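Final paragraph of the annual report: two paired records, presented back to back.
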Amino acid sequence: MWRRLVGPVAGLLVLFVGSLAFNAASGQSRWPGPLDFVRLHPWVVLLLLVPLAWLGLRPESRGDRPHHRPAAPTTYRLPPRNTRFTGRATALQALRRQLASAGEVTTVAVHGLGGVGKTQLAVEYAYRYLSKYRFVAFVDAEEPDLLASQFAALARELGLVDAGSGQVVSGVYTTLRDHRPWLIIFDNAEKPGTLLHALPSGDLARNGHVLVTTRLNTWSGVADVLDLEVFTRKESVDLLMRRVPGTDAGTADRIAEQLGDLPLALEQAAGYMNFNQTAPDAYAALLTTRLEDMIARGEPAGRPAVVVATLWQLSVRRLEEQHPAAVQLLRLCALLAPEPIPLTLFTDGPEPLVAAARDPLAWDTTVGALAGLGLARREDSALVLHRLVQAAVRATMTPEALTTGRARLSRALLEAAPNDVHGDAHARPRWHRLLPHVLAVTKDDPPLPYAPATASLLRLASEFLLAIGDRTVALPLCERALALDEALDGRDAEVGFDLITLAQIHRDLGAPQTARPLAERALRVHESCLPAGSPAIATDLATLARTLCMLGEHRAALPLAERALRIDEAAHGPDDPYVSFDLIALATVHHDLGDPATALPHIRRALRIREAHYPPDHLYIGYALLFEARVLHALHDPSAREPARRGADILRGQLGATHPKTEEALALADSLSR
């Protein structure tokens, strides 16, 4: 301390002596006491003071300088930093805001699916904001029984040696008062109750932050919660392109899609490709065909013992002990698509797929068990599973369990899916929800005992896809349905349904020469096994009539269309939606025969029926409007512009601007508006 004063004091003395010397030069004859020596010998005094001033004013040596910078923060068991940490900028900023929002102790729980990167985020936060803390500790909270020993080691790290076993936790937080601000990370915690004795409470901790990572959705009562989702697609692509040389953005995108953007899976994929020198395109192909096998291969950087295939095993074992019905539900959901699964699929059938579905309370806790353990997410009246959770569960199921599960789901989906794709006005939204699950369950042909339900589902799915214009997707499904039904006994009527749907697909694909024999065979099959007035025969007749028109055989088509109309009017009444299809077929024949005046009342009657039964933006209304516009244009009627515009707007809204049917409709509307 005295060294700091020497310089200023010496400086003042030099100034003072200088002033005396000046006064001496001004003629003073005598000064009192010892100061008279200064008057007589001022330059001697100045020379004596110069070394003293130099000693006080010279720069201090590096070892003698005071340390103004704070001491480096102390860390305890903090894992090494991931030098290839990718993305998460928004999550890190949100985490910092939540932790820094209060001056007192703050607790934030980072919640998310296993493998989503909760621990990586917590560790990166610790390093990124290390300068904000004086002490940072990392505690493994997965096994609550081991917390006491970890806090005992933490106490020794802080120099606390006298605390008894019952006072270790409080002693640690008391000692941390001298190390504030501090951060403690509790990694992979269970329910809050298992950790409460290790969390700070009351006045024991001030200016401290507690960060908890957990899969369980039970922390909102004791902490702020940050829900961590999977990577954005850009983050996934960036990680793969950085980690795997030669990966292009398109291939990275395909890999990320197959892996559901799960960070751990992406790291595992990068490890596999680098170790095996597998080309990214080849890896993407393996994921497409062998997903259940691939999630067990590859080592994530820094976590060689953790792979996606085993990530959720502990949670599933816990379910088996505590909620066996939830395990049954989980295995069924694993066979469906990674899309929202309507819970009514398990509850509304004649025989619930899960016994717990009979009791509302038991069912709610069964579904809640999957959500609570982070294996699924509830969305309104649906359940959503990550595709890799599903793959990991499927990998543990026996071939028999897979086959039986798919067969049960096929029957349940057949009960839930609307059978009347054309006549049911509410069929389309229900089919949109169910289609991904139908495709997932029917992707493999089942053993023959389970084939009928699969065949019917495939045909109904193809009918729906045809109705919304996805003909190329509908075609292979309908071909599979026909192959299954032809292999079964007693399925003649179903074979006819498959044939006529297949004929409609080929007709809409612009291949009437392929559609014709299929429609003719369907008609023969149905006439041999169904009553003469069956609506199925009317469908065959109308389809064949429209196909013959495309082939230029209008005269042969006319009696078929007229007969179809009579059958459906007798079976359903004059205003049924199915009658509108016959009217369209009949109008098509007359229009192609060069008689638009006769076609117009048929098309307008069909339009009135459809507008009475379908929503105003339904595709069937759009098609009828466009047909009316063409007929009016043939009659040189300028009012054709309005139905053309309305029809084109409906198709653009339902199919998108780039769909071929939309482009055709827009071209018609544009030509009529000139």
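The closing record of the year follows.
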Amino acid sequence: MKQAPTTLTYFVDEMDCANCVKKVEAATSKLPGATVLRSNFTTQILEVTLDEQVTPRATLEKNLKDMGYGPNLQAENGQQPRTQNQKPATDRSDEHEKNAWHQTRQGKLVIQSGILLGMAYLLGFLLPEFARWFYIAATLLGVWPLLKKAVASAKLGDPFSINMLVSVAALSALLIGAEAEGAVVVFFFAIGELLEGVAAGKARQSIKKLAALAPKTATVVHEGHTHEVPVSSLQVGQVVQVSPGGRIPSDGTLLEGESSIDDSPVTGESIPVHKSPGSTVFAGSINLEAVIRVRVDKTSRDNTIARIIKMVEEAEESRAPTARFIDRFSRYYTPVVVLVSLLTVLIPPLFLGGAWMDWIYRGISILLIGCPCALVLSTPAAITSGIASGARRGLLIKGGAALEALAGIKTVAFDKTGTLTENRPRVTDILPLKVTQDQALQRAASVEQGSSHPLAKALLEKAKTLSLLPAQNARALQGRGVSALIEGVQHSVTSPRHAAEQTDLTEVQSQIQDLEHQGKTVVVLLQENTPLALFAIRDEPRADAREALLQLQSMGIQTTMLTGDNHRTGQAIGQQLGIQVQSELLPEDKLSHIRALKQQGGVAMVGDGINDAPALAESTVGIAMGGGTEVALETADAALLRNQTRDVPALIQLSRSTMRNIQQNIVFALGLKAVFLVTTLMGYTNLWMAILADTGATLLVTANALRLLRK
């Protein structure tokens, strides 16, 4: 009976760079019965399905070890491994995170090679006959680990690896008597690998700082008593107590107490938010003012922070089209470089009377110039830095493909409710008729107290500074409003249509129509059959909505609103914000509009509701507001955790910055190599310049990508 393939998840020591992932993937994919599911140099995770009847896992692990990588089995078919008792991958970290650069293996190699080089240089003045032996020692010390990896890669079908190019160049330099150049070749290559490891470590730290936001312990309330437990043990439904200054241990709902909550560690929102019973709170947020009690709604594995980290890790595994192109390009580029180097060595001496030593020297230089380190690093380094930078600012991007697509967006389509507006109706106008404004508001709110209707909440919010009057016999008037006895007199808050059935509204009809033309919902406060006041209520635009739309327009991006709301309300909000409006749309109508807009170029859809999910999925890039439904968040390609409209242009600007960074990196990588290739063939540059061309390009690309982390 054929055994089903096993899914193995490894934490791979030393797989901490883009080129490392490329080599590991290539070697693993060539094994019969093996398929790479995911790999990530940020988390150092390799997940592979393996038919162990064809290739035992021991073979896979041996191949990785031969290439210089340390596989540590973390999970088998999603469960703890049956053969090993390993720490979870989330508890592991790369040596560049735990140690200073000089304490890492690569750092020690750089220091040791540097000492030998320094001694050789000094001996060149004092005892020249001994200097060459120190250069040889420095070369062999640096080339040995590279040569082992190169041979292992060649056995696995990758003879044109970067390690092979550098090893051949360094050893060839020794053979032609260029010991100093050979030593410097491996020294600078070691520096380049060290810089790449440090850069990857910084990106990892940027993400892992998120995991440190949630506290390790929580104070659970049980039968009137409190006790401390690990956050990992919290269950949905438990109640936890958070003191002022403490961090909220899990996503939940505020049950008791009111306090200002600092959500900035999670969402990036700089201003503390006042929250009261019924409000949603996030793991990692800081309680600022009073003791609160929170019902746990999500476990530690499923809270906001855990989901952010998971999304970012998945995003880093998702490669941008440019990255995939560079990978394909490098497969052909490296063999071509070897061929050009070989032809440079052979053709001039054999057919043009050139000196062998001169052209061997130039051939070695071309091998070094052609090393694709910087080119391979150019895209993933920028993508990883861009995604990490966005996550710190509450801009979650679910992959390199989404990040790249955002740069080419021509149109942004917005849902209205909860996206351009707050999804929180507010009282915008009070027109008192027989009483003062405060008296009208007090009586209307007194009638509405206890109601959960959005219009009732708007009136109660407006009247929160007033003392409400006792209300008796309160009852809902189905589809029409609410009534109650206030001071023994019948009062009702109702629609103009229902009020007109009980009293004459002719004198205020024009005012009602003006308010309704502004997209506002009008309610009438009646005392018996006498109208006391009119109230206008509307879901108002977000404070930053107009600013965000202006920013998008200044970036050359068209905007449109797609809403299921009525035409009058949609147009009123659209005119206020200066945006084109398509109203009274069903989910399938929104989908059709997105398809039509895509014919004009890339479209981003911004929404927060279940009804937005089809349009989010159909758009080039779907963007979910952070306060939206889980369906919207799961369907979208990006999420705005701060729940602010102005983060839409910020997201697109981050994408454009990242793509500019990638373009700059590719120009640095290929431009330097092209210049030095020509000058080397013409004899103007030597092996020293070739070394600087390779390491210099890697250094430029790495430093340029890290600039994104400062944004």
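The radius of gyration is 33 Å. This concludes the annual technical report; the extension proposal builds directly on these records.
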